């Protein structure tokens, strides 16, 4: 990978986002770590730099349009390029049927899981178009392919993210920008605020990071539209 390459990862402070950030830094990219939790970001950036990588922290609220627009301008002014965008940040809000869900919770979930990737693409895809290359990777879920009892809103956000990905891929492919989606099953993270059972049997965050590396290292004449990842055994 080009040592001047710039990669931006949302939800980078822990779990899948942290693993992806480490992997991209290991490939030689300067990684912009984006999340709300500044202390966690700073700790990860220190880890990456101590391992010989390059990382910068950016603390912001992905539900705020003006903050994402400012981020896009910062990347343009400071680096003049964005080679990789990984839209990883997401929230769940599962555990109750849809009719019992508060509209405010619905709005927050959709703002994070669907509107934020749109705003990030809006802010950064123009830089990729100008360079005639780039990779956008959206982290979805198998819940975007299957019904999810007591998780209808989450499932809907991921179905929508899949559709967004497929369509944006068609919009950007003629500019040399490749857009892919990764849909994992049960991952060993504390996503949703709960420590997972049978952690060793689950997909590991590093497994997702390996797939991101595969996508961005793909030779230029082709791209992978979607990767579904399941545990080898049901946890």
Q: What does this protein structure show overall?
A:
- Keywords: Oxidoreductase.
- GO terms for molecular function: oxidoreductase activity, acting on the CH-OH group of donors, NAD or NADP as acceptor.
- This protein is of the alpha/beta class and 235 residues long.
- It has one domain: Rossmann fold.
- Helices cover 43% and strands 17% of the residues.
- The chain has helices at residues 15-26, 38-50, 65-78, 103-131, 152-172, 205-216; strands at residues 6-10, 30-35, 54-59, 84-87, 134-139, 177-184, 226-229.
- Strands 3-2-1-4-5-6-7 form a 7-stranded parallel β-sheet, sandwiched between helices.
- Helix 5 links the parallel strand 5 and strand 6 (177-184).
- The longest helix has 29 residues, at 103-131.
- It is globular, with a radius of gyration of 17 Å.
- The chain starts with 5 loop residues before the first strand and ends in a 6-residue tail after the last strand.
């Amino acid at each position: 990978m080009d040592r001047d390459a710039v990669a931006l990862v949302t939800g980078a402070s822990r779990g899948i986002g942290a693993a992806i950030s480490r992997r991209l830094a290991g490939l030689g990219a300067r990684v912009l770590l984006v999340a709300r939790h500044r202390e966690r970001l700073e700790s990860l950036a220190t880890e990456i730099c101590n391992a010989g990588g390059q990382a910068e922290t950016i603390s912001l609220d992905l539900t705020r349009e003006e903050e994402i627009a400012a981020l896009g301008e910062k990347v343009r002014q400071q680096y003049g390029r964005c080679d990789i965008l990984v839209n990883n940040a997401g929230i769940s809000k599962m555990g109750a049927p849809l009719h019992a869900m508060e509209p405010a919770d619905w709005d927050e979930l959709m703002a994070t899981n669907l509107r934020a990737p749109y705003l990030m693409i809006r802010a950064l895809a123009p830089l990729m178009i100008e360079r005639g290359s780039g990779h956008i990777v959206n982290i979805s879920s198998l819940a975007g392919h299957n019904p999810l009892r007591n998780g209808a809103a989450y499932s809907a956000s991921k179905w929508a993210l899949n559709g967004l990905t497929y369509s944006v891929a068609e919009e950007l492919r003629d500019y040399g920008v490749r857009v892919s989606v990764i849909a994992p099953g049960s991952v060993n993270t504390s996503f949703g605020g709960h420590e997972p059972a049978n952690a060793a049997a689950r997909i590991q965050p590093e497994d997702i990071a390996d797939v991101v590396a595969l996508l961005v290292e793909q030779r230029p004449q082709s791209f992978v539209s979607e990767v579904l990842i399941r545990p080898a055994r049901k946890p």
